[in-house]
Amino acid sequence: MLNYDIVVIGGGPAGMAAALKAKECGVDSILILERAETLGGILEQCIHTGFGLHYFGEELSGPEYADRFISLVNEKNIEYKTDTMALEITENNVVYAVNKTDGLLEIQAKAIILAMGCRERPRGALNIAGTRASGVMSAGTAQKYVNIDGYMPGKKVVILGSGDIGLIMARRMTLEGAEVKCVCELMPYSSGLTRNIVQCLDDFNIPLYLSCTVIDIHGKGRIEGVTIADVDENRRPIKGTERYIECDTLLLSVGLIPENELTRAVGIQLDPITSGAVVDEYRETSHKGVFACGNVLHVHDLVDYVTLESQTAGEGAANYVLGKSSEAEYIETKGVNGVRYIVPQKVNIKNEGDIKLYFRVGQVYKNARIVVKYNGEEIISRKRPRLAPGEMEDVLIKNDMLKNFAQGGKIEISVEV
Question: Which helix (H) or strand (E) holds 371?
Answer without folding.
Answer: strand 365-374
